[in-house]
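Worked example 3. Consider a protein that binds magnesium ion.
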Amino acid sequence: MAPAVLIEHLKKSYGTVEAVKDVSLQVESGEIFGLLGPNGAGKTTTLRCLCTLTEPDAGAIEVSGVSAIDNPRLARQKLGYVAQEVAIDKVLTGRELLQLQAALYHLPRAFAKERIDSMLKLLALQDYADKKSGTYSGGLKKRLDLAAGLLHQPDVLVLDEPTVGLDIESRSAVWDFLRQIKAQGTTVLLTSHYLEEIDILADRVAIIDRGKVIACGTPSELKDKVGGDRITLRIREFAPVEEAEKARSVLQDLPAVQEVIINSAQGNSLNLVVSPQSNALSAVQQALQAAGLPTFGIAQARPSLDDVYLAATGRTLLDAEIAAASTRDEKKERKQNMR
Ligand SMILES: Nc1ncnc2c1ncn2[C@@H]1O[C@H](COP(=O)(O)OP(=O)(O)OP(=O)(O)O)[C@@H](O)[C@H]1O
Ligand SMILES: [Mg+2]
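Given these inputs, the predicted complex is written out as structure tokens:
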């Protein structure tokens, strides 16, 4: 059977910005597939190319074996897309918006009515269906977006940041809903920069960074690949780089320590990969003490998806987000200064 989604060597630039440099991924039918990456990594651009809303510069895209480039209409029928930022008409009611969506997909009238009712029920929106969508809370709006994306019974539901800005309760309602539609056979492709969301929800994940896929697999495969437990420690709140280097040379000789990464974005803190279930923590503390290096904070944990990202890029997802935000702010500032 053809995969639900096949993307091969996708490329897309906006002027000089290479939004997607080389993305290949394969989503199997019936799975929840997560695309994880920091701001500006190219997630939305990838999804927009898949959903035929943006024309790629190069690469192949197939939806259940149908080329989205040669046969965009048919590919689009197989996809439901819920955008990152949806401009919904505030004057229309939830039901009216779904009716509009049904008309856009040319759904037969009787089928549309039935389908709208069942979507409203599935997303527990019956009580709000005839209220103006402008009065909806963020969680309700998102549920309405999901209903709209699913209305024409797509094989694949594509969701761009489905839970961003939602409170914990609404977020877990969306998660439950996605599991439910997966159980009914719908394939789900979603982006997120919430590590825990992807970890909990996704059967498989591709980590995307600066327009490229840097790792792909099940969350546990990816975590296993980065090896043992992690120790994070600080020499002091902001250690000089020479001190961090000295700590690294002391620590990398310890038998339990597999790898030491200096995280310059976090005040030269040290991220260690150590053999699991070893007495690494006390060995590390003793070695630093013997070298006359104080420890400001130290913690040991099982690897997370952030460690996968760190191992591949040398920075954590959070640092990448902060860097992307500051580049954006700098650009904004420069623009303002030019005025
Ligand atoms: N229409 C556009 N015109 C110019 N540049 C764009 C356009 N869309 C995206 N970009 C740029 O392409 C890069 C990738 O953007 P994209 O929106 O795909 O990232 P993302 O991973 O979805 O980020 P986020 O997590 O912030 O949603 C960014 O540098 C962005 O500024
Ligand atoms: Mg995006």
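Take a moment to read the result before moving on. Residues 139 and 169 are 9 Å apart (CA to CA). The longest strand covers residues 17-27.
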